[in-house]
Amino acid sequence: xxxxxxxxxxxxxxxxxxxxxxxxxxxxxxxxxxxxxxxxxxxxxxxxxxxxxxxxxxxxxxxxxxxxxxxxxxxxxxxxxxxxxxxxxxxxxxxxxxxxxxxxxxxxxxxxxxxxxxxxxxxxxxxxxxxxxxxxxxxxxxxxxxxxxxxxxxxxxxxxxxxxxxxxxxxxxxxxxxxxxxxxxxxxxxxxxxxxxxxxxxxxxxxxxxxxxxxxxxxxxxxxxxxxxxxxxxxxxxxxxxxxxxxxxxxxxxxxxxxxxxxxxxxxxxxxxxxxxxxxxxxxxxxxxxxxxxxxxxxxxxxxxxxxxxxxxxxxxxxxxxxxxxxxxxxxxxxxxxxxxxxxxxxxxxxxxxxxxxxxxxxx
Length: 364
Known about the structure:
The chain is 26% helix and 19% strand. The protein has helices spanning 17-23, 57-60, 65-82, 94-108, 112-115, 168-193, 200-205, 275-280, 335-343; strands at residues 54-56, 84-88, 127-129, 144-151, 209-217, 229-232, 238-243, 251-255, 258-261, 269-273, 290-292, 300-308, 314-315, 333-334.
């Protein structure tokens, strides 16, 4: 596949948002100011943030039939109607969550010269900087990112794993192992909710790909003019988001035509369905657009894990979910090709999924 032209964002005092914040400019640089239609508005109250489903993983694992079935039904509804839910009692020790928060914060607080040792190369999504930038005129997100491939080992770039903080690598390894087990567990329950064998995704995915991205959103003097992260759906099968304690509320999901803020639940993890599950379920479970907004006085830190099939796997709607009433909506494709397509295009809602849609050229 020919490389896509890319315009790297220089990591310097002018365009690194943390450095911008330190300089306290009298106005927001034009490169960050969104067009009127894209600017965040106050979230409407038509949908309450408290409506976003909360799934108790402990209840899903219960042998008590009634309790298990009740929670399983909630999971099914969450996947069908929201594409997002928060999971509690997930089994990950709170110290693991606290440790990853600490090393992530410590990394972003390092001097710029130290962070510049791990630059995100053009057209890639590993390293420090901003991803998905392919035009000199493209608006930038009010966010600093640090992303790493974790599993399988062949996708790692050892040069990008930082030596500071000293416990960064070990902490990320422990955290990623726990998140991987959570994803495997959730996918088993999601498969059962579809009437499929619990191990269907595990058998299909091969050695699953796992990557982590840490997002730091400094305060912004004009949060009404910028976006922390552009609207998009994820190309993964599942995404796990940890909203760091005491951060501003920044995550919003698109429900109908309304942007709904996701209020953090103590010790919960936010789960969302990715494009891959939408394709595999033939649209029964849909990925959902989401974005991040900024705050005038408070910063925000989030830690995101993407869990997806092996790049060698060929994917398409599962036959059990295709019939006369639900005709095939997506073509079969190589997951590695889709991943390459995803990371070499800017974030534009769910447009990346057009890659797989059979009716993409004719649908409204």
